[in-house]
Amino acid sequence: MIDHTGLSVSDYERSKAFYIAALAPIGYQLLAEFPAAVTGSTDVAGFGEPPKPDFWIHRGVPNQPPIHIAFRVDSRAKVDAFHRAAMAAGGTDNGPPGLRPHYHPNYYGAFVRDPDGHNIEAVCHEG
């Protein structure tokens, strides 16, 4: 089981604002933030559902190739809301909300590129 994951971002403040907006519809919040003075290396921000962050961003050279991270949600409406919010926050469409039956019959997802080109997805496996 994965406890947490994260990625490097080129513009920390821009990416933090993007993720605050894009992840809000799926119930994720900015739960922790530590400056470089505390971490000893770089600024970090942790997002998740309270009480614990499980998705982190940190200032640095963006991962190459870009990373794909999928957030599982419990409704197709949340997938739709994620896509709208991520696009409004400056994301780039990488696959609008819809069924992806080549994965399985109820795979409903949406894909957005974040400011550094990472492929961020919200997916619902319910029918």
UniProtKB/TrEMBL annotation:
It holds the Pfam family Glyoxalase. Gene3D superfamilies: 2,3-Dihydroxybiphenyl 1,2-Dioxygenase, domain 1. InterPro entries: Glyas_Bleomycin-R_OHBP_Dase, Glyas_Fos-R_dOase_dom, VOC_core. It comes from Roseateles agri. SUPFAM superfamilies: Glyoxalase/Bleomycin resistance protein/Dihydroxybiphenyl dioxygenase. This is VOC family protein. Residues 1-125 form the VOC domain.
